[in-house]
Specification:
- The chain is an all-alpha fold and about 900 residues long.
- Among the domains are: about 1-55, no CATH class; about 425-530, Tetratricopeptide repeat domain (Serine Threonine Protein Phosphatase 5, Tetratricopeptide repeat, Alpha Horseshoe), CATH 1.25.40.
- It contains 51 helices and no strands.
- It starts with a helix and ends with a helix.
- GO terms for molecular function: mRNA binding.
Length: about 900
Amino acid sequence: MLFSLKHFAKSSYRANSLSNSKSLIAASSSIPFTTTTTTTTCLIPAKDIVLSFKEWFKTGNNDLLNQIFQILKAAGDHDHENDTSFHPQPRYSADLALSHLNLSLTEALVLEVLRYGNEKEQDVLSCLKFFDWVGRQHSFFHTRATFYAIFKILSRAKLMSLMLDFLETFGQQRYGHSVRFHDTLVMGYAVAGKPEVALQLFGKMRFQGLDLDAFAYHVLLNALVEENCFDAVQIIASQISMRGFENDITQSVMVKWFCKQNMLDEAEGYLRRLVTDGRRPSKVNGSVVGVLVHALCKRNKFEQAGKLLDEFRGSGVVLDSAYAVWIGDLVQAGRLNEALEIFQSKKALEGYVPDVFRYNMLIGRLLRQNRLEDVSDLLLEMKEGGISPDKVTMNAALCFFCKAGMVDIALELYNSRFEFGLSPNSMAYNYLINTLCGDGSIDKAYGVLKYSIDQGYFPGRKTFSILADALCREGKLDKMKELVLFALERNLMPSESTYDVFITTLCKTKRVEDGYLIHEELNRISEVRRESTYINLISGFCKLKKGDIAARLLIEMQEHGYSPTRKMFRDVICSLCDMGNPDKQFFTLLEMQLSCQEPTCRIYNFFIYGAGHAKKPELARQVFELMQRNGIKPILSSDVLMLQSYLKSERILDALNFFNDLRHRREIGRRLYSTMIIGLCKAKRAYLALDLLREMREKGVVPSDDCYEILIQSLCWNKEYDTAVNLIKDMEKVGRRITSFIGNILLLHSLKTQELYEAWVRLRELQIEISDMSILGLVIGSFSGRIRVSQDIENLEEVIAKCFPLDVYTYNLLLSRLSNSNMDYACALFYRMSQKGYEPNRWTYDILVQGFLKHRRTGDANRWLKAMHRKGFSPTEHTMRFYRFI
């Protein structure tokens, strides 16, 4: 079975080596593997692989220890969240449940339970509960070893204050009959990082005629080295030697003492003397050599470490522990190939048997580098070598199956985790969720993530984001909302981008209130807020006509340092004006703006602009007058916005009166004239606009292209073609070129009627016959059907290009003209415009479909209709009616 697994991993490795780690899951998920059938890659069913791994995992499972920690973890999780004492009393039910296990309490069992809890890293509280419960049993008294074990757990968890509180309490009363009181205090302060206190207590002991035992002496010696109290080290070491306590632990600590002082040569000499000195009470072992090997590797002296090991191997020292250290340091340094080579060679040539910890280190780093073939080899070695896997191995295997694309196997092992005591870590959760998302199993990934949060793990933000994107993409917004609230209730903060995507999706699907609820929950636990979140929420509430909430969010946005745009102010003001009592809401927002920042013309302009868009010119005028009363002189933009507010509401008389008032305050320039002309045209007052344009010309002010464009457009729609042609002549006089917009308007009306060409002929003058205007007249005549020209497409394009720049709209007009007569020419034009970089739009395709239908070429019409759909466009209703009719 595992041979097939290895073969599968090799294939996956070769495929994955061609891609980076980001695309690994996507690449490997395409491998054809199922849980019920075999493939050419994996030769046996997935259920057999699952069964084999379950059986192996069970060999590493300790049911009794799992039961103990399940009881401890279930008891008092909420009762002691704020308990800072050393005695987190379990509830009576936990005492009773532990008693029912009928444990034979011995020092060895207690140490095993504490070691197991220490390995779990997350279970310090459970270890404390167990330590306290054991101490209250009449059949057991804590020993130095059990105290030392709990001290190490607290030290590792950096709970020094808790530990010091206990030691202070312990120093005031005898804790147990069999505990050496002073020894325990000395050890406790030593482990707690207070060697100076430990030395003081040791001095008091000696003064009282008491002494430490060998165990406590070595704890104190090691603490002095760890805390760099180098002067005291030799004193304690000599005391150990005088009492005959010296052993391999003493030697290891002394080598560490040399290394911490960067005296590597002295450490090496010390080791050699130990080997050659036959009077020593114990032989040098691998753990002592391993201390120096580790120090050399930390200084990147790997080759020197290798030579040292070869030397001591020749001296007969058993170096298994030193090999483990060397391999571990090579792995940590990223020198995986060297570590693997040494791992295999020492195992083959010297019978070195690596422990599960070394296997786990190698497998973990190989997984990160996607070296799946090597991972499968090591898993195979462990299984065949009878090495019982621990929790780390199980999690690594779960990650391996995910990376290899065998998500069904990974999920089955995950679902069976209680059978063999698997506690997934954050890495396993991340891999499993990412792979399930890539496999399209969004609901399963959601279940895994929810369970992981419930167990106290919060997978990485990237993983959370991947699942969030998938849920949003699949429209599973209720699940996404539940998941986010589930995390926020536990004060777990997803990434900014994650909740921003979610809130954006809620706003787009008209669930703005839900988005606001998530936003409020996030505000409760985090000060981080994204500008885009505010933008989406404000936009959503504006669309719902809930301007009061939008205004509140606008103020909040500013309080957090973001500057709303003019458009955002406009939308909020328009939404306020659609609510009841708009005047009050409007001026409340204005007052808040003026109170939270220095009043400027810009702020007043925002409100004039917003009121104008809301078609509330009276509000705009009040703001305009308020600005002047507050001593701020209106700038040109203020006058323009005030004019536009009247014109948008078609209050033409007010606009004209205001414009006339402006004549007394400032010189009327192009911008004010343009504002009036454009606004009058939009209000269908083209003749008033034309009078203002003539006034501009008389004053020597050259109208902008916008003025000419909107006036010519309005005149053409009113069929005032003679006036429109005169304006075109006027453009030539002032040096303005025909824009694409104007040219397209002329071509469009030429397609509809011959009146434009007739007006052109009536007003044509001989002196411009050779100008570009005459060429434009020919094009208009051609489009109106009054002049027959060559159907050559390229020539027609060139002629138009001499008059004005072509754009997609121009090509669409050309297509409309050509599709009336020759669809082959129309298709040729379509391909030409594409080659020139003009992107066909919906109308381009619609024109061609209509053209083919007019010529009864339904097959071609169907083909272009399909091409239209592939581009994401839909035909117009007119075209579809025509299509159904044909």
